[in-house]
Every structure is written in C-alpha cells, then in structure tokens.
Amino acid sequence: MQKKSNKKVLYNTIFAFYFEFNKLKMSLLFKIQIVLTFSLCILITGYAQKAEDILMKVGSTDVTVGEFRYIYEKNNGANANYSEASINEYLDLYTKFKLKVEKAKQIKLDTIEALKVELDGYRMQLAGSYLIDKEVTEFLLKELYERMKYDVEFSHIFVPVAENAPNQTKQDAMQKLKDIKNKISSGTLTFENAVSTWSDDRATAANGGSMGYFTAKLPSGFYELESAIYKIPVGSVSDVIHTKIGFHLVKVTNKRPSRGLIEVAHILIETPGVEKAENIYNQLKNGSKFEDLLALHSIDKTYSGAGGKLPVFGINTYDVKFEDAAFALINPGDISKPVLTNSGWHIIKLINRLKPDTYEVFVKRMKSQINKDERFNAAKFKLIEDIKKASGYKADLKELSAFTSTLTDEFYSYKWTPDSTLRSDKMLFSIGGNTRYSIKEFADYCKKNSKTRLKYDNTKPLNETVNELFTDYVNQKALEYEEKNLPVKYPDFKSLMREYEEGILLFEITRMHVWDKANQDTSGLKLFFQNHQKSYNWPERATLATINIKSVDKSEIEKIYDFANKNDIQAIQKKYSDKPELVKIIESSCEKQSKDCPNLPWQKGVLSPLEMADNGYKFVKIIEIIPSKPKSLSDARGYAVADYQDYLEKEWIKQLTKEFKVATKQDVLKKLKK
C-alpha cells in the first residue's frame, strides 16, 4: 500500500519536476523546488476568452484555454502574472510535455490495464474527498460566514427530551409542539400565551420565551436551531426543531448586523457606589487618566494588572447591560457612563473593534472545526437526499421487507450467511434510472458489514437493523453515483483527473525513453561520456595530514611540530609509530578552494599553525598537490547518467517535434497575455 502511495506522489512530482527542471537547471548544479498542493478549487478569474476556446493543437489533441490556464496558474502560483515572457516560457514547456503525452497515447499506454486500474483507484480516492469538500464543507463554510454577519433575537417554546429517550417519548414531544404550532397558525393561540402555558423553559417563560440575541455558530447539536433562526423571517414561527436537549418552536423577533468582537477595559466599583462611580466618570471626562483611576478604585483584581483590559468578546459573554454599553462605544478611547450589573458599577473604555476575518482567513480557522461539527453530518445527509431526488432514486421496499422476514437472530452473529437463492436480477433500488442494485448485492453488503450487525443484539428489532444497513448502503451508492458525474459537474475536477492521467502517462513514457535507457544503455552511456570527457575532470586536489598531539608539554609539542615541518609524512609516521597515544595522524583530501580545505598556501609541505584541540594540540600538513585530471566513468557515473538523460530527452523532443505537428493559434495566445 505504501508503494502505491509513493508512486502516486511521484506521478505528480514528475509533472511539476518537468517544468521546474527546465527552468532552474544550471550547468551540473541545479536546485529543484516542487510544491505539490492539490487545491480542489483553482481560482480562474474572468477573461475575455472562453475556457473551451482552442489555444493549440498537439498532434491530434486540442489544448483549450481553460486547460492551459488551469495548469499555468497551478504550477506558477503567485507568479502566474500572464506576462508575455511568462506565458511564452510556460507554453514552450507545456508543449514539450503534451508531445510526450501524445506519444504515450499513440503507443496506447493509456490502454494498459494496470495503469487504467491504478488511475481508477486514484479517481475513487479523489472523488470521495472532492465531493464532500465541494458539496458539504464548502457549503457549510459559506453558509456560516454569511450567518456570522448577523445577530438574531428569538424566543422559543421548549419541551426537553434526552437524546437517548425512547422513540415514543420523542414522538409525543414532537406531536405536542405540532399541535401548538397549528393553534398559533390558525390564530386561536398567540405564541406568547403558548410559552407561558406549554414551555418547560421556566427561566424564559415569564418574558415570552425570549432567548435574546445569538450569532452563529451555535454549538454542535444545535445546527437545526441555528438554521431555523437564520432562515425564517422576523415575526414568523418555525416548524418543530429537534436539538440534542429536546424539541423547540422558535419565533424570530429581530435581526441586526452582527456586533462582532471588541476589546474593552473597565473600572469596577462596588455596589452601592453610584456616587463614587459618577465621580470617577466625571474625572475621566475632565482629563484624568483611566489607568490612574483604575489603580486607585477598581475592585476587579483579576484584570487590574492588565490595565483593566478584558479578553476579546462577542455577544452572550457578559451581562446584557454591560455588553450593550460596551458595543455602543464608537471610537477607541471612548468611555461609557457608569453601568450597573450584578457585579457592580462599570465604567467601560473601548480599546478596539476587531475587523471580521476575510473569507480566506475564516476558512483556514474554521475548516477543521466544521468537519467535526454535527452540522457536517446534517449537510452530508441533505446532499445525499438531493442526489437521490435529482437522480430519480426508486426503491422496492416490499423486496426489502420480504428479505427481512426471512431473517433470524443469527443475523446478529458472524455465522450468518445470505440465502444462496437470493436473486441478482431483482431490483431492490435504482439510482439514475440505469444504475440498479439487487437484493443479493444488498445481502452481500450486510454480510461484509458485520460491524453494524454485531453492535446490536436480539433486543433490537431485525427490521430496524436492516433498515439502518439499507440506509447506509443506499447513501454509499448515491455518493458513488454523484462521484462519477463530478467531471461533468465540476470542470476543475475534470482538470485534476486529466492531470493525474497525463502524469501517469508521462512517467511511463519518460521511463521508457529516458530513465531506463540512460541506466541500461551501457554502450550509449560510454560513448556519450567519451564525447564529453572534458566535462568530467577531477579538480586540483590536495592530500592532507591532520596531526593530533595528546600533550600539554610545550617543548615536546614544539619539537614534534618542528620535526613535521622538516620531514615528509612517512618519516613522521615512522618516528612516532611506537607512540600512538602521543601522535595520531589522520589523512584526508580536499578540492582546491573548497570550504573543507584549510586556509593555507596551496603547495606541498605547508603546515598550518598549531591550535588547541582536545587534551592537546593539532596542525595540518599538505602532503601532496594532485593536478586536475579526467575522471573515469565509474568516478563520474552519477553526473554522467544525469547528463545523458538530459541529452536523450533533448534528442527525443527533437524527434517528437518532427513526428507530431504543433499548431498554436496566435490570436488566442495574444489574448492570454497581459
């Protein structure tokens, strides 16, 4: 599995590598930086051209403006400025790429079964995540971003029901609220009267069920409530809403632009203390410093050390009176009149009003949270229902019921096996008219899905377990059906799959014509090396001896150093061969002007100055200067193979250019450039 995953990355790396290699290669040394970002939504801004306009024809293949823009923007990122130089350079690279792909198709690499299976595997992996990302996550992010622009005031009638309550209890609560809604709709009962009579939220019943203002996002488990208060008009009453704490009828009483987030500081004065609060407020109005009066009078010791500054907050964080006064302040530095809450008297100073996040920043901050929220499952369920409706989903529930009637409690065990007489030609349900699934296929799914079957026992009715499995199976097939339509529905997904397919073909055709040939064609490599021998030389080098002296006796150290200066390395080794604990010699080599070479005159016999080392001293002696000379093929093989590959590719491109005609529409190309 790991091998396949690595190859998948490699295919896409090859695609990017091809362009980056040609742009960044410098002599024998080059740097390649590849950024692989599978962005599922490529920004394509408005142009005068249509995406389907033909930009060029490579062999028998048309390249549209949309295709070129997609890959140009993806690979150039922030540098995709559509300048003439940039477009010309990239068009040349892309043309060479398309020539290789055209050759791969000509020799029918795209018909090789193993490659087709591999591409289908990638398509399935991408399609599932793409569909959810596009149809669920992106929808939820846009929805939430828009909702957060408003605060909504609402009231509710509430009937509490535990999440794990019996179905009958839930149905009774729902029916109770349905009856109330009918009376309100008919005019026989006002919402406010219904609250006082029927709502079990006694904390709000006295004030008409008012919950005050709320803003999205509500906690997980309250998505249906959030959707209701944002969707129904002011003054309207919702249908029955189910949350994780029970059932609600909601009336929206007002909507306003979101107050957002602010940062304030406050001076807190004990209660009673209105005269003191007024006196402090007047001093502030007359020029006294907020920080000085805070230090003298505020009883909020938690935040007094921070200049009275509270953490950034939005609505429903503090007392409503405190929040109303805080959000009424307009400019940083504005100060409120004294405000009384249960905590005491507050004098509030506005520090800052935070600007709302841009959508891009919001997405980065919220995407991971959205996917863990209950709303994600709700939106996924809605997507499936929309798919079923649009595709003309039909089911034969009698067939399902007949299957269920044959089951016993063995269904809840590993031993259960589908009846061998189940028919594969009898439709259980269909999606899209022509895509049909039989009762036998569903039974096989139940067999494989032992996890769902075994999590229950015979205390749960068989029909409920089968219905749950059936729902899961239908949902899975509905998503698969939609995934197959992604290339039609989303041009960017089609482009992504084309990129994968052509990446696979590029990898295979380049392997055949360049990589394998360069490594296996020993005679060709040898001839290439001989013809370019001058490019593969050893630079001038020096052999060195690093002499370590394990001693602190200065006279002994100087004696060894003087001997090394007057004698060659063999004499030094011979003289101190019986004293390895005193003198240790390490030989090495380095290329001229290399950072690994000591900073010494470049000549044989030169010594470096003594320098301190572990438990003693050391110095370096140049043993020999080795002139530049040609490398052997074995010495230069890595460089030679890389250069031979480059040579083979260039020759191959020349051949492909002769084999396949390339026709670029200059008028279309001109419109692309800025």
Features:
alpha+beta; 18% strand; Chitinase A, domain 3; 4-stranded antiparallel β-sheet; 25 helices; 21 strands
The overall strand count is: 21
| Share of helix, binned | 40-55%
Task: Report how far the terminal alpha carbons are from each other.
Answer: 46 Å
What structural class do helix, strand and pairing data support?
A: alpha+beta
The biggest sheet amounts to:
4 strands, antiparallel
- Overall tally of domains: 5
Q: Which strand order does the major sheet show?
A: 6-5-8-7
Beta-sheet strand percentage? 15-25%
- Spans of at least 5 consecutive residues with low confidence: 1-48
- Radius of gyration of CA atoms, rounded to a whole number: 39 Å
Mean pLDDT, to the nearest integer, reads 87
Number of helical regions = 25
From the spread of the alpha carbons, the general shape counts as: extended
Structure, explained:
The protein has 674 residues and is α+β, with helices and mostly antiparallel strands. It folds into five domains: 1-106 and 490-536 and 635-674, no CATH class; 149-257, Chitinase A, domain 3, CATH 3.10.50; 261-354, Roll (Chitinase A, domain 3), CATH 3.10.50.40; 391-486, no CATH class; 538-630, Chitinase A, domain 3 (Roll). The chain contains 25 helices and 21 strands. A four-stranded antiparallel beta sheet has the order 6-5-8-7, sandwiched between helices. Helix 4 (113-147) crosses helix 13 (359-370), helix 4 (113-147) runs antiparallel to helix 20 and helix 20 packs across helix 24 (637-659). It is extended. Residues 1-48 have low confidence and may be disordered.
